[in-house]
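Changelog note: in this version the structure field was regenerated for every chain. One regenerated record is shown below for reference.
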Amino acid sequence: MNIAAPRTALVLAGTRPGGDPLAAHAGVSHKALIEVGGMPMLARVLAALDAVPAISRIVVAIDDPRLLELMPACRKPVEILSPGAGPSASVARAMEVLGVPLLVTTADHALLRPEWVEQFLAANVGDADARMAVARREDVLRAAPESQRTWWHFSDGDYSGCNLFLLGTSAAAGVVRLWQQLEAQRKRPVAQLRLLGLGHVLRYRLGLLSLPQALARLGAVSGARIAPVVLSDGRAAIDVDKPADLDLVRRLLAAGEPRP
């Protein structure tokens, strides 16, 4: 059975302890406030989610609720959730408070389009507990040849994540717990490899692991079935993590990228 359409979307908009380097580069207090195309990144994300019929409520995980007062009004309710110590902790808290199904994205997904969300939600993922959006390298580079992404090199192609997830059933909490474990071990790569299984990591290094096989392994470790959804528009993989990303997004918007 396909995952039910979400009523609630979560936007991760917290800031790093000590501040975000990109926010400092742009001269704002929070990365979500960086202006692109004449409006803050967070405002563009909210507008895109506001235009998706399947979503009836938007929740923003942010440490300063006053920042929402700077955003244009949405037609749908927009609520605040106190963020956790990191992205995975914020998502875990949101699952406890908001339940499932829960759509998750980030405030730096500045090019987010309603049609991408709708394609993501409409994809047939069978009986998966969770899904994640990805884009193929060739599609990303066709849309933005100068884009600098982090690529996952699988035997069936190179992919980049699209900062779009759907936690569809309660079993997806296992995925979030695994995410928290990997975050906690981010400075201990050997410990991370033990969590995922050395054999599968070696197959990945040798180019012998496909994307579905990798997600099947993550599913076995987390106790949840995870499905990829390949989005057709390569721009869906472009988020804003560094100054080069910010310049790229601003150029794309200046070239005529419409508002959501």
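Spot check on this record: The radius of gyration is 18 Å. Residues 52 and 131 are 18 Å apart (CA to CA).
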